[in-house]
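Researcher: Here's the sequence for the chain we discussed earlier.
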Amino acid sequence: MKAGYQAFGADITPYSVGLVKAEKGFVVPLASDPSYQESIVSICRENEIKLLVPGSEPELFELTKNVADLESQGILVIANEHALIKNCRDKWHMFLMFKEKGVPCPESALPEDYEQFKGRHGFPILLKQRTGSGSRNLFIARNEQDYAFYSKRLKEEKIPFILQEYIGKGEDEYTVGVVCRKDKSVVGSITVHRLLSGLSSKQKTSVGGATVEISTGISQGVIEDNQTIQTQCEDYAKKLGVTGPANFQGRLVNGLFVVFELNPRFSGTTPFRAGVGFNDPDLVIRDRLGEEVKKPKFNTGIIVLRSLENVFIPPEKINKIKVIPSEST
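Model: Thanks. This is the structure I predict for it:
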């Protein structure tokens, strides 16, 4: 790799493109398995791996619980502090954190406060699963009938959810990446002006003659160095105590960037940013290693689109992937 890293990968299935492209791939137990952390530690020991970059939310949550223990074994975890990650796992806790820290966000409520919330904000109302990512179980209720249908479905499936005010326009939606140092100072930021079409469009409808739309977890868009938005997001990152990567999702409403969600990890737009010269993982890693890092120059105006890719893999490559057994097998 250009940056001088050797990249190893781990996943819960051998049928993962990342494991084939990595220097070496491993199949590990679920993050919730009691043997998960030990499996990761054994891989790091056997392969002299010094840096650990959690990818998914469950892994991020588990590994940041035990940062001191891992670092005592010579393994540096490249992630934000556990308290921030914990708050961002639950969208209700995230909303309360935003309100406490002064980060502009849509008004939200729990289902038991539906009547009061509806009375204040009217329709449309968003129903959002409290945990998870990728816009799973995210719905627009245009009226009472929609709300009854979606809320019943979520309750029957025992999926906790929140209500959220619908704000702004789809054309004003952005994803903003902010990188902070370990000391919580900001390295820099970058904006993707989202295109809500194709893979990025989840639901589009009309309420009272106005277009209402929500996006999927798959970002596409135009790379920008938008100082109006980025200055605000950098301020939010400082208020929230970010010590690594942060991905703010929101809309610009009358000059104010209103945040739907914060992903305190390397997100799906990380490859976009690296591709135009803003390499989040490299910046955070070098800061953790004690190097001086500054905001890099990056290309703007580039349109980044997503697609599915067909990858043809000989079976012997899959068979070479080492499987670390879990305690439950």
